[in-house]
Amino acid sequence: MGITQILFKLQNMLEAKQDAAFRIPVSKQKAYLARFPEPKDDITRGYYQYRCQAMMRGRFLNSMISVASFPVTLLMMFKYRRANAPEKAESCENRAVLFRDGKPANIVPTVVRNEFSDFVEDPIEGNYLRKEDLAFLWELIRRYPLSWQFALKCTIKVARYRYALEKYGPKALIVCNEYSFTSSVLTEFCTRNHVELVNVMHGDKGYNIRDSFFRFHRCYVWGENYVHLLEKMRAAKGQFHIEVPNSLRFSVEQKPEQSYDYTYYFGGEDKKEMEFVCKTLLTLREKGKRIKIRPHPRYTDMQALQDVCGDIPVESCAEVSIEMSVLQSKAVISQFSTVMLQAYYNGITVVLDDMTNPEQHAKLRELE
Questions:
Q1: Which H/E stretch holds residue 184?
Q2: In the β-sheet with 260-265, what is the strand arrangement from edge to edge?
Q3: Distance CA 170, CA 118 (A)
């Protein structure tokens, strides 16, 4: 694992433990957001989003990450500039490249996929910088000279995008990246390189200024309510399009038998919350209900879950797709999860868990 991956993994672990969206009142987020003037360009938008995320993390953590990012940024610039350019793929005038980042390809709306004669959903990836890319990155550093985490992430993302541009010569890049403060900077990078940057929504949203200020050439969301929510957080107007992808409204050749009455979908619950959920599920089983649980592939503490779940079946995220998992159930249960929206769109009963953490449930209303 490289040093950049270590830094980002550490940052993600710390942020997950902070649970900033629930810890910091929406009123405080709104007050902080209102302090910023109207951004003058996409680079400013990216920096403002970075500042909002820094506030959510806290000054101490952000300062530590920024200090650690300074030497790594210079190292990555040197490394990526010396890297070899990729071998070019066969030419195509109407090609799109999708950066999935571990997400399923069906998050892309069919209308977007059908625009392109060649759709690369599993691209060969790498990092490469041209001379003009270094000039672009130094432009960011001169404007915001003390924000080295901002510079580091932009360096890595620009190098990744440049590699794709050199290899595939795409007309568009498709991403799911609105939560990253690099998003608007990369829109500017793509504009300068005559490539369209298209963002697709992949998970449910609440009021969280992590998602503030961003702009893409196009951004696809699941409904009008998300447009209103994101524009409240000062995401650029005029970029939004509404489409429901197959990741929500499933397209399967043959629906499986509904062999479970209830499936509980975990997120980042602590051990005490897991114990409460499993105890309640066992009560359902005593009444003759068929139950199973599914951990979150990134956020669930699997050791804690194994300690408390007893003989309740634990579904494997690697072996059972989310589509099959939902369709096998007569009802899905969760505190808050995109899976509830997926169930709704596919005619499966949704049960909202307002018992495990009542304070968090009340907070969800505030988060819209």
A1: helix 183-192
A2: 291-294, 260-265, 329-334, 349-352
A3: 9
**Strand 118-120 with 218-221, pairing:** unpaired
For residues 39 and 183, is the Cβ–Cβ distance under 8 A? no
> Measured between alpha carbons, how far is 96 from 107 in angstroms, rounded to an integer?
15
Are the C-beta atoms of 131 and 230 separated by less than 8 Å? no
Among the listed residues 351, 337, 341, 212, the one whose alpha carbon sits nearest the alpha carbon of residue 284: 351
Of 300, 330, 13, which is closest to residue 315 (Cα–Cα)?
300
Q: Is 301 exposed, middle or buried (0-12, 13-18, 19+ CB in 10 A)?
A: middle
Q: What is the CA radius of gyration of the chain?
A: 22
- The amino acid occupying position 269 is E
Q: How would you write the pLDDT of the chain (368 residues) with one tens digit per residue? A: 565 566 556 555 555 544 677 789 999 999 999 999 999 999 999 999 999 999 998 888 888 888 999 999 999 999 999 999 999 999 999 999 999 998 889 999 999 999 999 999 999 999 999 999 999 999 999 999 999 999 999 999 999 999 999 999 999 999 999 999 999 999 999 999 999 999 999 989 999 999 999 999 999 999 999 999 999 999 999 999 999 999 999 987 778 999 999 999 999 899 999 999 999 999 999 999 999 999 998 889 999 999 999 999 999 999 999 999 999 999 999 998 999 999 999 999 999 999 999 988 888 888 88
67 burial class (0-12, 13-18, 19+ CB within 10 angstroms)?
A: exposed
CA atoms within 13 A on the CB side of 316: 3
Long-range CB contacts (within 8 A, 24+) of 34-37: 36/213, 36/234
Give the Cα separation of 307 and 65 in Å (integer): 34
Question: What gap in Å lies between CA 169 and CA 161, rounded to an integer?
Answer: 11
> From CA 38, how far away is CA 48, in angstroms rounded?
10
Strand-pair partners of 197: 173
CA–CA dist 368, 354 (Å, integer): 16
